Amino acid sequence: YRTVFQTSVDGVAISRFRDGKYIDVNTAFLHVMGFKREEVIGSTSLELNFWVDPGDRQEMVAAFSERSSLRDLQIQHVRKNGDIIWILVSAAKIEIDGVPCMLSIVKDISDAKAAEQRLADAAEALRVSEQRYRATFQLSIDAININRFSDGVFVDVNEAFLQFVGYQRDEVIGRTSQELDFWVDPDDRRRMIATLRENASCRDLEARFRRRNGEIVWGQMSESIIEIDGVPCILSVTRDVSAAKAAKEQIRDLAFYDPLTHLPNRRLLLDRLRQALASSARTNRKRALLFVDLDNFKTLNDTLGHQTGDLLLQEVATRLVACIRESDTVARLGGDEFVVMLEDLSDVPEDAAAQAEVVGEKILAAIDKPYWLAGRECLSTSSIGITVFGDKRENTNEVLQQADIAMYQAK
Predict the structure, then answer these.
(1) What's this model's pTM, rounded to 2 decimal places?
(2) Which of 106, 264, 319, 386 could disulfide-link to 11, CB 3.0 to 4.6 Å?
(3) pLDDT tens, residue by residue, 159-212
(4) Beta carbons within 10 angstroms of residue 29's beta carbon
């Protein structure tokens, strides 16, 4: 008994029932409570201030009035240095020399309780995180959707996504974007999947999407692969950038296109002319610049008004575009001056000039045809100056000047 008592890894204490004084304790008990043996023997747990809540002792004593043993009670005690610890107590009534006593076995479970608390805290944090995620997911102004990676089936979507695509939730969940025909260009989805396979994430992919009503919208997407219950999924966040795209396109139009005729303006023409000159330096193909000027346009403007003049310019622009190939350029310099740049002519200058002349005659004939403007028939003619370039090193100003001089000669 003495050997077991002293070598037990758990604290063991014996106290008298009538006054609660300790009559024996083992080394493990002293280690748990932080006291020396002589400080404990002959004292009570109340005198040693063991109890954080003295009511726990009263409940324990009351329990013994009904039964002879107690098992696995979790109680907080105060060590000698003031630290509060959790102990697991099992106790039984015994008699020593005919004196009723209580044998208590004590185990320090502070680490286990701390781990339990950490687990509880983690569970609470997870619950709060889940609530926060759900709130963020549902209240986000960006469209958010989760799809299984294996087959692309929608697992969850938020309200912003439903507004973005124009569908109801039950029409989306359980289906794929291909079934709903979301992607205007299926290659965009293939590129996204390829990037996710390689990098597990994809940022700022711009793509066009088809809403339920057929409207085409632009979205900027960021995706990453996540796991939900062990199943690989794609988390996608999409922002509607249709308005930004439209504004960007409008800014581009204002910078590079004539607002009246929607033809390239002088800035865009000069840029394309510079590119053509750089290309001519590498190849032998010739190009031509046609300077088109409407005859007596000021008279029409003064007599019929600027509104009629604008209608004439718009119709002239349409006819000029109809006279050239898709690879050629028609631009409006301003007023009644237009420029046509012909690409890929013969590498023989004389042949290139003849090709340009054919187009020039076609333009003259097209512009000479009558116009029906604001309920009135109008006539207009034009003068065209042509220069062929690409056989020597020229700059944009020289080419424009040569075509301008030729136009005045024609006029």
Answers:
(1) 0.50
(2) 106
(3) 999 999 999 999 999 999 999 999 999 999 999 999 998 888 888 889 999 999
(4) 22
